[in-house]
Write a structure and sequence with these properties.
The protein is mainly alpha-helical. Helix content is about 65%, strand content about 5%. It has one domain (about 25-250).
């Protein structure tokens, strides 16, 4: 069994089994965020492979929404850490998947060097190491630290640096690129914020409605985010090639 985002899924089928003990709203929010991520990647593929205007995905509104929903997905993954029996094992099991994604995307000329799966794997490992220490810090102080560090660290995004080996941390060198990019800075602080929220959820401190809320469709999607992430780009790639072929045939 492989653990992903704090919940178990069958390694053979990559399909998570539902359980009456699962909190559907967590699965649902993660499902919504992965669907929006898929939609964004579809737009990206249309721009790259079909020649649609870059304005489809590069515009002020979508830039903000893309960051928001990516942050939501990372937050929910951090929350789910509190449901995991072993974040170290979960993180280590994600790394081969991340390596396979890098190999495949590199082979087609659009390498993903540190995408969302790379980030989640490393973050789970790091959290397993630092959690004993940070759990000794009062929760209000943790909240302030994570927010301040995130707000301070976002100033580093978008810049280029004269380094060649710190891209995983957030310091991108000139000429370096990744088709999907979620460095530890600033996103790890959102992940840690999620682990903080998760402590309140696991202690049943939220309103009862939070635990009883049902969102079947999005929850079903959210239970299988790993499967969807691994498969969605190959499927989208085939779809965009078909669209390109149809357009070329019409022209």
């Amino acid at each position: 069994m492989l653990l992903f985002s704090g919940l178990t899924y069958d390694m053979k089928s990559l399909i998570v089994k539902d359980s009456p003990n699962r909190i559907q709203i967590i699965d649902g929010l993660r499902g919504l965020s992965i669907l929006l991520m898929v939609a964004y990647h579809f737009g990206y593929d249309l721009v790259i492979f079909v020649g649609v205007s870059p304005q489809l995905i590069h515009n002020p509104v979508l830039d903000v929404l893309q960051s928001f929903f990516a942050g939501l997905f990372i937050l929910m993954s951090g929350i789910s850490c509190r449901f995991s029996k072993s974040n170290l094992k979960r993180g280590l099991l994600m790394l081969p998947v991340a390596a396979a994604i890098t190999l495949v995307t590199w082979s087609i000329g659009f390498p993903v060097w540190f995408g969302i799966i790379h980030f989640l794997g490393i973050s789970a490992i790091l959290f397993s190491i630092v959690s004993p220490a940070i759990d000794k810090i009062s929760r209000p102080v943790q909240f302030i630290i994570y927010i301040v560090l995130f707000l301070c660290s976002i100033q580093f995004t978008g810049r280029r640096y004269d380094v060649s080996w710190l891209w995983w941390l957030g310091f991108r060198p000139e000429g370096w690129s990744s088709a999907d990019y979620f460095p530890l800075i600033p996103w790890f602080f959102i992940y840690l914020l999620g682990t903080l929220v998760g402590t309140y959820i696991t202690e049943n401190r939220l309103p009862r409605r939070f635990y009883a809320q049902r969102v079947p469709f999005f929850a079903a999607i959210g239970r299988n985010t790993m499967l969807i992430y691994v498969l969605h780009q190959p499927v989208l790639y085939v779809i965009t090639l078909m669209i390109k072929g149809i357009i070329n045939a019409i022209q």
